Amino acid sequence: LWTKSEFKQCCNASQDLVLTQENTVMGQKILYETNRKKSVIVKKIVFHLRNVSFQEPLWNQTLGHCAVVGNGGILNNSRCGQQIDKVDFVIRLNLPPLNNENDVGKKTSLVTANPTILRSYTRKSFAKMMEVYGQAVVLMPAFSYVSCTEPSFRAYFTLKDFNLQNVTFFHPEYLLRLNNYWKSKGLLAQRLSSGMMLVSIALELCSKVTLYGFWPFSSSLNGKPILHHYYDNVGPKQGVHKMSEEFLLYMQMHSKGLLQLKIGIVASLFG
Predict the structure, then answer these.
(1) Which of 169, 187, 224, 270 could form a disulfide with 142 if both were Cys (CB 3.0 to 4.6 A apart)?
(2) Active site positions, annotated
């Protein structure tokens, strides 16, 4: 169950995770992930988007030991930062603040960004905020919803103009296949969480996967109240994700040796 080869067969992140010149041709119609009646034609500007940081040899070999760092409040006072920064490849979700280095680390290799984030920033302030992520690849769902396209391109051009990170776009067909895969396994969420998407990617592309900051509950193991995120207490939209069910899957994967689920001070529990 959930073998690397199974993920490759279903979804093939190594080839189809992002839009590239290898999997997309000029003039091709791209259907939106969540609305198959809506589409966009691949024009010159899309065609020149290359996943620069995923060139040889990185993309065609395993990424080594990967940490997928969730944003759960369980990370506060965990002292996990040093462990996180020691792995080969650090994957983070939704542009989290990194001002708590002792608990969350500072290394970032890949980070997702929700296109709505740009509503809160001018170009200059957005670029300033992004400096903390160094040379990480920024992954955005430009073609998941029609409303995502324009802000995703705005992020791409802003970071290009300020000589910051490379922005690359999820291939909507990859996300659709991944969603269908998990539905076939009984995970009937309206939409996979960013965490589940990135854990799935890591399971296919990394030789070893360790999860930090995944904890969908409002209290810790000893019953102490904790924030939803380590930086705020804003919960997810009701009815969209199935965080608790996803967490149960992570625990099952841990028990089968597919990944390590780290919880608690210096991530002691479960490994």
Answers:
(1) 169
(2) 241
